[in-house]
Structures are given as structure tokens and as C-alpha cells.
Design goal:
Elements (H helix, E strand, L loop, with lengths): L4 H12 L2 E3 L7 H4 L7 E8 L5 H11 L8 E5 L4 E5 L7 E2 L18 E6 L2 E7 L5 H20 L13 H5 L2 H5 L5 H7 L19 E8 H10 L4 H15 L10 E8 L13 E8 L12 H11 L2 H16 L1 H4 L3 H16 L4 E8 L10 E8 L5 E7 L2 E8 L5 H12 L4 E5 L16 E5 L1
Helix pairs in contact: 3-4, 7-11, 9-10, 9-14
Length: 449
């Protein structure tokens, strides 16, 4: 009998490879990543000095040891996708690809994240199956800190002491906190709303167009206090007003629906770096608008208040778990799941005008502050998504869309300028001067992102 030694070695490697189920939020991502919706997000740190790629590579090689899950590849099983350990390593590269370019290619073995640089910027891009924004920031914060220690001989002690184990970082918090309830009914109801959709000229190649607006965090916070509300509520209300500014009268029978991701770690104790978020939907009826921001803020505030309860958040979390724990769905082959999930995802998108994700105030060691200018975040989207991040006195609104025009963001920045908040705008568009015209341009500093 002949023994195939290569086959035995291959089987031995497979037996020793670790594999991980996708968390509940990640399960729909491979089936719905297509076109402009690559499901890739970018986190950037702009430094005060040019990036040294060799030092960045050293920092990455050291820090990734604490995050082995990120070096997994995505594989397709009979019933679900799953992650498998790989021996691949990430190499730091110059930023030459379009932002948020695809990271997942069916049938190809490749890492699901990339680290690149452009002049003073360090960029981390990640496929959403690995982590959410909060989880990715746990890694990115350590990467930037380690880079600055090596580049500027900062004290080793400024690195965070890890209080969570690798097992805790890799844990599936959705599965841990799941409680059975009628979750599928809620998932179905999420696809019933027909919201107002952004209308603009699309890039013929569906390339992502980025707009980055930077304001004073102190001024924005003061503005929120003037309106007796929070930063998150004010941002959503201002965006709704910006949409209304450009909304045709014939479309005012449809609500403006803003989807707001919520970090579930605020409600359930977890150190996972994987996806662990829920979503609340802020719907506004244009008929309630009287031309003032005061007519929008109370509605948005009430929606936040009623939905951000522990009971409602738990119900939303369990609705994601319903997909995995439903016996009938478990037995459906993956190729059928792909078709059904993609159809559901497209139907759900019709119920959303845009998504606004607030990553909050980013904390870094005090010793690192002199070397950092700002952080920003972007998320690829089939229509439009806005990510808000703050560091020091810089609050950044990062918008990604496949559109070559940016009417809503233009209106958003105009509204801020009218309220006394100056805006510094950067974009990857070829003609960035088209963003502002006339006197608004005098209040906005334009640059290339």
C-alpha cells in the first residue's frame, strides 16, 4: 500500500489549526460584501512627523502577538463561514489602493486587515468579520503607542498593561450573553421601513469617496450644551437638517432614518475585540420640521432615550443571535444562506438613509500627545456612512460614499459654520474645491486626505 506523505502532512496541519465561529454580527458580512459595500473600515492616526515604515513594521510585528485572531483567514464551510489560523504575516505598505478597498476575495487565502501609511498618516483597514470599531481601536491604539515609543524613545511604561487575556479578546460576546426570544420577528420588522434614500451621481467604478471634516471638539460640545443635549444627539439632528436642506418636496412623505451603532460593551461587561454592537434607528418625519434645529432635537432625543434601554438593547442583541440559534436556519446550506442574507440585507438598506457611528473620545498616553495630530475613521458603504472620532480638541467627521458629489455633507458643514463652528475639510476627490463655493469657503480649510 502506497502512503501519500504530503496528504498526511496536510491533514496533520489541519488537525492542529485553530478555527473560530464567526460572531453573530459577522455572519451576514461575507454574504453581503459586494460592490461599493466592501464591509471594510479604516482607522487613521495623523502624526506630526512623517511615518517611518521600518519602525511601523517592527511595532506591528510586536503588537500583533497579542491579537492572534487578526491573523486568521476566512473560509467557507457547508453551513457557515468560519475563521482559521494562518501563518501569514501582515507587511506594512505605502497607501496606494483606494481607501477601504476589498480585503475578502472568495476562495483566496489572505489576511483580512492591512496596515499602510501615507506621509504622516498610519492607516489600519479591517474586514468587519474580524472586529467592530471599538475592538479594532484596542489594537490600533497599542500599535500607534508602540510605534511612538520606538520612534521617539518614549518610556516603555506608557504601554497599557493588558488586563484581558487572549481568550477574552477572542471571545464571542454575542454567544455568551444570548438569551432565546422571538428575535427573528424583530429582524423582519427592521426591513419593513421605506426611508428616504440619498440621491447623487455615483462613481462609475464605485470607488469610495472620502470627506473628512475636522472641528473643535470643545466648540461642538459647547454647542450641544447650548441646545441642552449631547454630542451624539446633536450630530444626528444636524445631519437630519442637512438632508432636509437638499430634500425635494416630493420625497417628504418618507422618513429620514439614521442608523446608529451602539457599543454593547457599555451594557454587558466584555473585553472582546470581535464584533459586539447593536443598532438603534432614529426616524424623523419631515412633516415635523419647521425650519429650525429645535424642531428636530427633541424627536431625536426621545428616540435615543426610548431605544437606549437595557431591555431594548438586549432584545436587539438577541435578534442577531436568532440567526445562529434557529434550528431550521442552521441546517440550510451556505450557498442558500448567501442568497437569502444578501436579499435581506438589500431590503434592510432601504430602511436606512445613512449610518452615523460615534467612536467617542480616543484616549492615548499623555506622553504620546505631542506627536499626534488627530484620529479619524471611515466605513465603506453602498450609499453613505459617517464616523465621528475625537482626540484632544479635534473632532473628525469621516464620510465615505460611492458618490462624486457630497451635498449632505456640504449642507452639514454649512450648518456648523453658520452656528460659529469652523470646519477644516479634506477629501480624496480630484476636484476638492467643488465642495465649497462663495463665502462658505472662507471658513473651511481644504486639503487632500
Amino acid at each position: 500500500m502506497r502512503i501519500n506523505v504530503a496528504f498526511i502532512h496536510t491533514m496533520a496541519r489541519r488537525q492542529h489549526s485553530k478555527w473560530y465561529k464567526l460572531d453573530n454580527a459577522a455572519k451576514i458580512i461575507p454574504s453581503s460584501a459586494r460592490g461599493a459595500d466592501t464591509r471594510v473600515f479604516r482607522i487613521s492616526c495623523e502624526l506630526n512627523d512623517e511615518v517611518d515604515p521600518e519602525i511601523l513594521q517592527t511595532a506591528l510585528d510586536e503588537v500583533i502577538e497579542d491579537f492572534p485572531l487578526f491573523n486568521c483567514i476566512l473560509k467557507k464551510g457547508m453551513f457557515w463561514y468560519y475563521l482559521e489560523d494562518s501563518h501569514m504575516t501582515c507587511k506594512v505598505t505605502p497607501d496606494k489602493l483606494p481607501a477601504c478597498s476589498p480585503l475578502y476575495f472568495p476562495g483566496r487565502k489572505n489576511l483580512l486587515y492591512r496596515v499602510c501609511y501615507f506621509h504622516k498618516r498610519i492607516n489600519l483597514e479591517m474586514f468587519h468579520v474580524l472586529a467592530d470599531g471599538t475592538g479594532a481601536f484596542m489594537f490600533f491604539r497599542k500599535l500607534v503607542t508602540r510605534y511612538l515609543i520606538l520612534a521617539h524613545n518614549l518610556p516603555e511604561e506608557i504601554m497599557d498593561v493588558d488586563v484581558s487575556s487572549q481568550w477574552e479578546k477572542q471571545g464571542d460576546a454575542f454567544d455568551h450573553f444570548y438569551e432565546k426570544e422571538a428575535g427573528l420577528k424583530q429582524l423582519k420588522s427592521m426591513s419593513k421601513t421605506k426611508a428616504y434614500q440619498i440621491r447623487a451621481e455615483r462613481d462609475e467604478n464605485l470607488l469610495p469617496h472620502l470627506v473628512e471634516g475636522t472641528v473643535s471638539a470643545k466648540k461642538f460640545l459647547k454647542l450641544a450644551h447650548d441646545y441642552e443635549t449631547t454630542v451624539g444627539i446633536l450630530a444626528v439632528a444636524l445631519y437630519i437638517q442637512a438632508v432636509l436642506d437638499g430634500m425635494g418636496r416630493r420625497f417628504r412623505n418618507r422618513p429620514i432614518a439614521v442608523s446608529v451603532p451602539v457599543n454593547l460593551r457599555q451594557f454587558f461587561k466584555s473585553d472582546t475585540t470581535r464584533n459586539f454592537f447593536g443598532v438603534i434607528n432614529i426616524n424623523f418625519d419631515p412633516a415635523l420640521y419647521d425650519g429650525t434645529l429645535e424642531s428636530i432635537i427633541p424627536v431625536v432625543k426621545e428616540k435615543f432615550s426610548s431605544q437606549l434601554t437595557e431591555e431594548n438593547i438586549a432584545r436587539t442583541m438577541n435578534s442577531y443571535g436568532a440567526l445562529e440559534h434557529n434550528v431550521m436556519i442552521k441546517m440550510v446550506p451556505i450557498w442558500i444562506k448567501d442568497i437569502v442574507i444578501d436579499a435581506f440585507n438589500r431590503a434592510a438598506k432601504k430602511g436606512v438613509t445613512t449610518t452615523i457611528s460615534n467612536l467617542g473620545q480616543i484616549k492615548m498616553p499623555a506622553e504620546a500627545a505631542p506627536y499626534i495630530d488627530r484620529f479619524s475613521a471611515f466605513m465603506a458603504a453602498p450609499s453613505q456612512q459617517i464616523c465621528i472620532s475625537s482626540y484632544g480638541d479635534r473632532m473628525v467627521f469621516g464620510e465615505v460614499s460611492p458618490y462624486v458629489t457630497h451635498q449632505e455633507m456640504l449642507n452639514f458643514f454649512r450648518r456648523l459654520i453658520a452656528l460659529g463652528v469652523d470646519v477644516e475639510v479634506a477629501t480624496n476627490d480630484y476636484d476638492d474645491q467643488s465642495l465649497f463655493h462663495g463665502r462658505e469657503k472662507g471658513n473651511a480649510v481644504l486639503s487632500q486626505v
